[in-house]
Amino acid sequence: MAIVAEQPSTSATHSFGPAVALSCRECGERYELGPRFACDFCFGPLEVAYSFGTVTRASIEQGPNNIWRYAALLPVPANVRDLPNMNPGMTPLVRADRLAAELGLRSLHVKDDSGNPTHSFKDRVVAIAVEAARTFGFTTLSCSSTGNLAGAVGAAAARAGFKSCVFIPAGLEEAKVVMAAVYGGRLVAIDGNYDDTNRFCSELIGDDAGQDWGFVNVNLRPYYGEGSKTLAYEIAEQLGWRLPAQIIIPIASGSQLTKIDKGFQELIALGLVEDTPYKIFGAQATGCSPVAKAWENGHDVIQPVKPDTIAKSLAIGNPADGPYVLDICKRTGGAVAHVDDTEIVDAIRLLARTEGVFAETAGGVTTGVLRKLLADGLLDPDAETVVLNTGDGLKTLNAVQGAGVTATIKPSLDAFRAAGLA
Amino acid sequence: MAIVAEQPSTSATHSFGPAVALSCRECGERYELGPRFACDFCFGPLEVAYSFGTVTRASIEQGPNNIWRYAALLPVPANVRDLPNMNPGMTPLVRADRLAAELGLRSLHVKDDSGNPTHSFKDRVVAIAVEAARTFGFTTLSCSSTGNLAGAVGAAAARAGFKSCVFIPAGLEEAKVVMAAVYGGRLVAIDGNYDDTNRFCSELIGDDAGQDWGFVNVNLRPYYGEGSKTLAYEIAEQLGWRLPAQIIIPIASGSQLTKIDKGFQELIALGLVEDTPYKIFGAQATGCSPVAKAWENGHDVIQPVKPDTIAKSLAIGNPADGPYVLDICKRTGGAVAHVDDTEIVDAIRLLARTEGVFAETAGGVTTGVLRKLLADGLLDPDAETVVLNTGDGLKTLNAVQGAGVTATIKPSLDAFRAAGLA
């Protein structure tokens, strides 16, 4: 855990708020806050270390109705709420009584992140990266993306006045391509999968062409990743300042899951919630389930795979944070499970039919895994449970292609009756 | 204005909160609160009459972060926040400095209602209709819809445990059809346009087949319409309890515009905002501009048209509230204007490029009309202005079909350079 007991190096108006350093997750080596992401000594990932001031429930509740209510827990300037930013967050925590009843759960909530500005949780991470990019003086925002991030970066760049150049694997869903392109930045498709795209971005970052570019999920990754902590903060606050007993989180790179754990730990350390046990469950699509496979086999290392699933937003075959995910799920008493494409589509429809939430395929993965874990006896049906929907069904329409009109009729009561609709 | 000075007929736990009656907008005849929508005497539309209790800024600000913070101003039960409902509202009021600079405006905000649960303002009106349907004991929710309403009704019915049967004109955008169908209710396409669909629903309501059905925009219309008032409340609250000097609102049936005016008037009457002048401007697509045409020609009556525009959510050729819209725009010193399909698409791209807001075609209409009114000298560039985006670009992807990848390349720096991207 990166809560450190030292003083911030500069005044309260420091551009990174309570953040004091970058520290290596593996060897603990510390670095000045800057656009770097890997340890010079052990190549471990860097993350943000903080020296938090006094943060109370009341101080948070008086904040704006978006992630900036947690500005005192994030690497952002104190005046962040006044800067041009997409201001995501405080998405609904839906009390899912009808879905709970259907599954035989006592208490279930859906954290529905489709309510964010570009309708995925990626707006959270990008919002933090934008502030870092501003501080570092980058002029172009960039990323490698499975689709949702592309839209989030395009929109945020437009709002904040950056140029943008976004890289996606060829063959993404039309809605994600259009949404990434409509903001007017450059959108480059890579002839390959996400892992190829990501590798290319790492090359570009060392090249002259990538000078002055902030790659939100590469050289800005330590800041970017912190955005996912806000999911933990919001869930706890929306539950009435309590931790859920069980939470199901999708795994792409695995970063989100590790940051939600970090967020819960920070809330406990700061005395904002009681230190009650929580179990974290990771969810993958069978067609891209390297972490779930490692879990099943009791391995500590992740064997990369070539993704083949409709859950394209989770299609990262070589998930950087996979080992940390295994640790966290083990430590908290959770598990990692996977569902196939048919189960994903069924789960999308189940969630829509019972709760009026139209989830992206990633939401089908988590809801499907929720159902599977219950069936397998790995979830306690009496414990308070939260399941994440991180994206929007409108972006993965093909998944529910069968959903269409019941009938087409002439505008008359006779036609209505003849079609058997009366 | 329907602020009446009488006492509520029942206690504070009355199912309709501060609402005391329905009253005819034309002749003032009053009716008990019930599932009725037209005056028995003059056939005028009925609207909700209230007896408001004490409502303060503080009492509102202590409420939940959705439209139920205004429950004391709506025909809903006091405990509405605890009932299963989509809980829309409190969508972002985006400070649009970059768009303002590009257009030469001093102060501009975009009220971005794509942040609602099904990504259009329709969630607001349906949320109120659902509560009325619950009180009246209806078992099926229904509507005629140009698309957005269909999704909002489908989702709300699922959340609240109603059956649903929704009617749309054939030929709607794919995203709207899928979104309406995915919640598992019945979705019936009518071989005709929206006005045909609407007429058919009016027939059905008198038929046995429509018994126990709450048509949100027919027999529940007086309640439904009140949901649009929350746009006025939110804009004023989000501006710091002030009315904007100028506001641009899309016109479909015209109901939304009339209710925003009603909302502003209520805030003034209740002393929640200062009584400062505001001008209301109506926006239509040239291909369906009966109200704008009447305005141009100085007519009081609306000549129905056959719609032909990409702005399908505004494609109501015979807008029921057209005459009231003309009155309000005249009274407040506003105007009604229209833009053609090319201008709509340009405006969608302009809004996306400058503010990262991806609007539906209806948002292209309002943004396009904003630009046109400025060019024509009908808007004061120094006055505080708000423009509405009532829907989501993901639902009208075809409008920006040209938006796609800049280039597709192999994952190498050489390919990047060869494509002229460096």
TrEMBL record, chains A, B:
CDD domains: Thr-synth_1. The modification N6-(pyridoxal phosphate)lysine is found at residue 122. It comes from the Bacteria. Residues 88-391 form the Tryptophan synthase beta chain-like PALP domain. It holds the Pfam family PALP. It is an enzyme of class 4 (lyase). The keyword Lyase applies. Keywords: Lyase, Pyridoxal phosphate. This is Threonine synthase. It comes from Nocardiopsis ansamitocini.
